[in-house]
């Protein structure tokens, strides 16, 4: 879709995303010079995040001064907090990738009107890939219409996910999830930028995505891309009201249903029976691990008397006297 046919609000979001992308690309030329702060363990923010967010906010509020802002780094400090129009911004999704020079990160901007996402932009500055969507008008990558994958068999599918990395995240549960999913698919990837993961599902580059612990700015724009590309998005149990539930599952419709069947029991909204089964599986895994870690008894570990008894019993084995010169067996 050409820019002349885009909704004016989407055009402003594109302008903001490209301005942020220019800041990110300039900083990427000398990423070791970027100042980094740590919000919590394994959760970083850089001066690039902050500068990117500021240029996005300035661009949006210049065009729409009465709109509200919900941004990852500054929260609701800017704009009109009572507005029905709220811009949801992640200025650099994939900060950890960025500070290591790993080129998988993006800018994510969505506009929610009365709580429903209506416009979305995900911009990958390293590839100059621009993903856009307006509710009811389809999803696009660089002006080309995109659709979710047509695969219907999970065994043929490539999925993406995100691993737990913050204090308090439940890595044991994720291990069980991956153990359920990986043998049933063609592959599982962890790129490290949820907004871009969702854009890739929309474009059919991957067949599905799941992750827990996400915030609304991680998924708002990408979720509209997926639904406008013909896919489904919800929490792990398949419920569509997921934006602020810290669970996201997205895929083409046929694959989505199969993933809900696999992942639903790991949802915080799962039934009591499913939760009990997961706890039992975790306990079983822990017991097996403890058994594997337990040192095996050996002759060297035995008391001297027991070792001597063991050697004596060996000497009485049939054929023990059948030795040639220098004790060499026949």
From TrEMBL:
Pfam annotation, one family: Inositol_P
- Summarize where Mg(2+) 1 binds, as residue positions: 72, 92, 218
Q: Name one GO molecular function term.
A: metal ion binding
Key words, A-Z: Hydrolase, Magnesium, Metal-binding
- Indicate which residues the UniProt annotation says bind Mg(2+) 2: 90, 93
Cofactors that this protein relies on? Mg(2+)
Q: Where is the composition biased (Low complexity)?
A: 280-289, 296-330
Mark the transmembrane ranges: none
- What species was this sequence derived from? Melaminivora suipulveris
- Stated EC number for the protein is 3.1.3.25
Q: Write out the similarity annotation.
A: Belongs to the inositol monophosphatase superfamily.
Question: What CDD domains does this protein map onto?
Answer: IMPase
InterPro entries from the UniProt entry:
IMPase, Inositol_monoP_metal-BS, Inositol_monophosphatase-like, Inositol_monophosphatase_CS, Inositol_monophosphatase_SuhB
What this protein catalyses is:
a myo-inositol phosphate + H2O = myo-inositol + phosphate
Q: What domain of life does the UniProt record list for this protein's source?
A: Bacteria
Stated name of the protein: Inositol-1-monophosphatase
- Kindly list the biological process annotations in GO that this record carries: inositol metabolic process; phosphatidylinositol phosphate biosynthetic process; signal transduction
**UniProt region (Disordered), positions on chain:** 280-330
């Amino acid at each position: 879709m050409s820019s002349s046919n885009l909704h004016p609000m989407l055009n402003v979001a594109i302008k903001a995303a490209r301005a942020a992308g220019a800041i990110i690309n300039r900083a990427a030329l000398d990423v070791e010079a970027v100042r980094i702060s740590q919000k919590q363990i394994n959760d970083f923010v850089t001066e690039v995040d902050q500068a990117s967010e500021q240029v996005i906010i300035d661009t949006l509020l210049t065009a729409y001064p009465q709109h509200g802002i919900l941004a990852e780094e500054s929260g609701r400090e800017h704009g009109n907090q009572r507005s029905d129009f709220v811009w949801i911004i992640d200025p650099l999704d994939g900060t950890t990738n960025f500070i290591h020079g790993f080129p998988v990160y993006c800018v994510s901007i969505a506009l929610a009107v009365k709580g429903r996402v209506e416009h979305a932009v995900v911009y990958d500055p390293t590839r100059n890939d621009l993903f856009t969507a307006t509710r009811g008008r389809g999803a696009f990558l660089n002006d080309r219409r995109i659709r979710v994958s047509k695969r219907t068999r999970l065994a043929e599918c490539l999925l993406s996910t995100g691993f737990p990395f913050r204090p308090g995240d439940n890595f044991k549960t994720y291990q069980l999830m991956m153990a359920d999913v990986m043998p049933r698919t063609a592959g599982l990837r962890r790129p490290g930028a949820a907004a871009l993961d969702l854009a890739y599902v929309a474009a059919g580059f991957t067949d599905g995505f799941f992750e827990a612990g996400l915030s609304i700015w991680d998924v708002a724009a990408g979720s509209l891309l997926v639904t406008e590309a013909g896919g489904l998005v919800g929490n792990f149990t398949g419920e569509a009201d997921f934006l602020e539930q810290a669970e996201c599952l997205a895929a083409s419709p046929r694959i989505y249903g199969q993933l809900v069947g696999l992942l639903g029991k790991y949802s915080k909204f799962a039934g009591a029976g499913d939760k009990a089964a997961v706890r039992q599986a975790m306990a079983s895994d822990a017991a097996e691990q403890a058994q594997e870690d337990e040192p095996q008894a050996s002759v060297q570990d035995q008391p001297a008397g027991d070792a001597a008894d063991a050697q004596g019993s060996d000497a009485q084995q049939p054929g023990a006297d059948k030795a040639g010169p220098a004790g060499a067996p026949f």
